[in-house]
Design brief:
Helices cover 28% and strands 31% of the residues. The chain is of the alpha+beta class.
């Protein structure tokens, strides 16, 4: 019997970096939210563990033999034939491998302890609902934010992968204060990401008609939150026409 699960795209609606710890990790405060779309993971019984990656972004994972999906499967002792339909850009600030691993844990009942061992974003991706994250991002608490569910979102990626480690390393170390109201927050990784990949500033500029436009995670994907689907769709059409090489996705928040 084949089973399937969506690996929902993760957004950081705001991301405040508060400190760099002695071990090189960073203490953050963030609001995670999740989109209705994502990668699709399917699984069927098999005598050994295998993973086939398909979809428009499969090429970016070519040659990977130990990604987070396989690590999650091995942690659970699974024997299964897995197929990952990679619909989201790779190294893009959308949760990527963390969301894919979390989808497998939801399919097979893996818990929070396994999620924490796999990575800082995996516990939030396991829940795939609006959540406040602190510490390294894995100290999580679900939150209710009025008006977010179903809100029109436009995702835009300029087609440039960006290493999370490189962006955090480029952070200037200045604590700009706690995260209180997410609408009035910021993403402290935008400046270092733009220094590494300047075209991110163009993406944010293209989303200038949104109610809120920010980079997600360590980039390079940026999101625009719109008041209605008509405004979002018009922006998507304009950006796709002007920047045909960019990935543009119209979706909604879960």
């Amino acid at each position: 019997m084949t089973r399937g699960e969506t690996a929902y795209a993760k957004l950081n609606l705001a991301l405040h970096v508060r400190a760099r710890e002695a071990d090189g990790y960073h203490r953050i405060e963030t609001i995670f939210a999740f989109c209705e779309e994502g990668d699709i993971l399917t699984a069927r019984p098999a005598e050994e563990l295998t993973l086939e990656v398909t979809g428009p972004f499969a090429g970016r994972l070519a040659g990977e033999t130990d990604n987070l999906v396989l690590k999650a499967a091995r942690a659970l002792g699974l024997s299964a034939a897995l197929t990952l339909d990679k619909r989201l850009p790779v190294a893009a600030g959308l949760g990527g491998g963390s969301a894919d691993a979390a989808a497998l844990l939801r399919l097979y009942g893996g818990g929070e302890a396994v999620a924490r061992a796999l990575g800082a974003d995996v516990p939030a991706c396991l829940l795939s609902r609006t959540t406040r994250g602190e510490g390294r991002g894995d100290d999580i608490e679900p939150v209710e934010i009025e008006g977010l569910s179903g809100a029109p979102i436009l995702l835009v990626n300029p087609g440039v992968p960006l290493s999370t480690g490189a962006v955090f390393s480029a952070w200037d170390g200045n604590d700009r204060g706690p995260l209180e109201r997410w609408e009035e927050g910021r993403n402290d990784l935008e400046a270092p990401a733009i220094a590494l990949v300047p075209i991110i500033a163009d993406v944010l500029g293209a989303l200038g008609d949104a109610r809120i436009a920010r980079m997600s995670g360590s980039g390079a994907t940026c999101f625009g939150l719109y008041d209605d689907e008509g405004a979002r769709n018009s922006a998507a059409k304009r950006i796709a026409a002007g920047r045909p090489g960019w990935w543009v996705s119209q979706t909604r928040l879960k």
